[in-house]
UniProtKB/TrEMBL annotation:
It comes from Pollutimonas bauzanensis. Belongs to the C/M/P thioester hydrolase family. One of its GO terms (molecular function) is fatty acyl-CoA hydrolase activity. InterPro entries: AB_hydrolase_fold (IPR029058), Acyl-CoA_thioEstase_long-chain (IPR016662), BAAT_C (IPR014940), Thio_Ohase/aa_AcTrfase (IPR006862), Thio_Ohase/BAAT_N (IPR042490). This is Acyl-CoA thioester hydrolase/BAAT N-terminal region. One of its GO terms (biological process) is fatty acid metabolic process.
Amino acid sequence: MSATLSISPASDLIDAPRRIILSGFTPGSLVEISARSRTNDQATWGSRAVFQAHPDGTIDLDRDAPLQGDYEGAASQGLIWSQKLLTPPAPAGAPGQDLVAPISIAVEARGEPGESARATLEQRYAAEGVRRLELEQDGMVGTLFTPPGPGPHPAIVYLNGSGGGINEANAALLASHGYAALALGYFGAPGLPSHISGTPLEYFGKALRWLRAQVQPAGGFVAVSGQSRGGELSLLLGATFPDLVSAVIAYVPSSVVHGVLAAGRPEEGRYAPAWTLAGEPLATVWEDNPALASWAAIDGSPEPRRQAQAFVDAQNNPAAVARARIPVENIRGPVLLISGGDDGFWPSSDYARQIAEQLRENGHPHPVEHLDYPQAGHSIQPPHVPTTFIAKAHPVSGVVLTAGGTPAANALANADSWKNVLRFLDHAAKASLTT
C-alpha cells in the first residue's frame, strides 16, 4: 500500500477546519510533515512537525500530537497556524497583490525511504458568487462585498486599526457568510489621508448612510466591527450614530478615546487628536495626564517594545478617564467585545470589562457579551492563519511592537472568537427582523 495524504475539505473558506490524515506509512516509523504557503501579501510561510505512525500506518492530526516540531499537542490546524515567516511581505499596495485571492498551502509528508505523499490545501476568502464593488464616491473609499443571491442581506462595516488600509479579506469572508460587508478605509489607502490625524466621525456617518441606501439591508440591520483602533472607532460610531448602527463588534478595543499614538503625522506626537466631531477634536485620555511620563521608559526600551503599561498607567487618572470615556450607553443594539489578557499593545481585557460594566450599569437593554482569552494577545482575527509573527514593525511609525500572546493561544482565540462572531451576528440580524 502506497503512502497517501488526505486533506478534507481540500478547498473551502479559510475559516473551515480541515482534517489531515496520512496512511500507508511504515508502522511505528517517524514521519515529517511540512507545510509551505505564500499569503496574498506575497510573504512566504512554513511549518514542520514529526509524528510517529500508528500500528496501522496512519497519522491523524486531529488525534495525534507531534513528537517534535513547530507546535505541541494534537491540533488539527496546527500545521497552518504554526507556520513561521520565511520571507517578508511586499510593501502594502505593491503591484500584484490580490488580498482576497485563494491561498494554497502545500503539505508534504516524508517517512521511510520511498515513503512520501503530497497534497494541497486551498483557503478562500470569497465564496462562489460573492460580488465586489469598489467605493470611491464623495470622499469615501472602500470595497463592498455582497453575498450571492438577490437579498436583501444584513450588512456590516469593517474597519481596520492604526495600520490603516482597507481590509478586503475580512469583508469578503463576512460576505461569504451572508452579509453585505463594506471594508471601509479612512486613512492609509489611495484617495485617503496618509495618517489617522483628525479623522472626522462624520465621514463614517456618511458611509453608513451610503451603505443603507446601496444595499437596503434586511431588517435595516447594519453592524460595525473593527480591531484595535478600529474597535475603539466601532464603539464611537455606535455611540455617535445610534440610529445608523444596529450592533457593534469590537476586537481588542479601548474604553476611552486616544490620540493618534503611532498612526499620526510624525511632527504631531502621539497625543494629537485622532477623531473630530462637528469640527472639534474629541478629548483624549492623555490630556493633562501624569501617565505621559510612562512613555519615556517604553520609548527607551529595546525593540520589540511592549507598550501596554503606559495605557494601564493612564487609567489611574479618574478625571482623564471620565473626560475621554466612550459613551457606550448611547449604543442602541447588542455589543460583542473580544479581548486578549496578554495584549502587548494596550490592556484590551481591562478596557472590555470597563465597557461591559458601563453598559450594565446603564441598564443596556440589548445583549452584551465579552469574550476574553487570558493568554492571547492583540492580534485576534478570523482563524486558520499563521499566528507566530507576534512582534512586527508598526505599519505607520515603523517601531517594532509586540502584540503579545503565544502562537497557540492566539490561534485558539481566533477560532473560538470567530465562531462566536458569526453566532452573534446571526442572532442580532434575526432579531432586527422582528422589531
